[in-house]
Amino acid sequence: MALPPLTVIKKLQSAGVSQEELEDIYRQHKNEYRILLHLAQHPKFPQSLSLGIISKLFAVDLVRVIKNVKANPFIRKKAELEFSQRYKRLALGEKISLLKMAPNSLLLTFIEENQPQLIQTILQNANCSEDVVLRFVNRATERYNFYSALDATQWHQNPVVAEAVAHDRDAPIKILLKIIPYLGLSGLQKLFRDDNTHQAVRDHIKTFLERRKAGSEPRSCN
């Protein structure tokens, strides 16, 4: 007789379940969504069966599979591909909810996103890494909406991000003014001497350095 679903799930979460037992559980519970979700993430469960389950999962559960470091890496990657295809058809509110919980590896697949709300959700995700932000800065496509979203975060305070923004000739003046305190001296000097740098930014750099109080000789960009 088949075990109750909760008992089966507890068994799947315990150590020592064999592949044969997993396949037996699958045969007995192949129409029970919660059990299938746990089976797909079990490292010993056959990949061929997991792939069939992945295509049937809700988007939120695909994210859970992707985040599960104990799951088979191949299955996690397949879940990521399935999610990326499904994502295009989701409503804005659902996209926001899912991006809030997405792991860094999944965020990296959305660096071409151009909706300000979604970009801001990505940047404010606790899993968002410096690498994700840098890829947004360095992408070849339009970045106006990215910078609008960046302005609402604290990422401009990251020295590596600030340096990358300073090298972007399309970066808005407002953002360039914000990154000045977080650039090193060489970065400030380079930005100051660049002929493409707006005069307002150059004036701000000069004022910033003049006001910087340090126990060394006065610094100048001239």
SSE blueprint:
Layout: H1 5-13, H2 19-28, H3 33-41, H4 47-54, H5 59-67, H6 73-87, H7 92-101, H8 104-107, H9 116-124, H10 130-138, H11 144-150, H12 159-166, H13 173-179, H14 185-193, H15 199-211
Helix pairs in contact: 1-3, 3-4, 4-6, 5-6, 7-9, 9-11, 10-12, 14-15
Radius of gyration: 24 Å
Average pLDDT: 91
Let me know the largest β-sheet: none
- Number of DSSP strand runs: 0
Provide the number of structural domains: 2
User: Which word captures the global form?
Assistant: elongated
What does this structure look like?
With 222 residues, this protein is mainly alpha-helical. The chain folds into two domains: 1-89; 96-222. It contains 15 helices and no strands. α3 (33-41) packs across α4, α4 runs parallel beside α6 and α10 packs parallel to α12. The N and C termini lie far apart (84 Å).
In short:
This protein has 15 helices and no strands. The protein has 222 residues and is mainly alpha-helical.
Key terms:
222 residues; mainly alpha; 61% helix; 0% strand
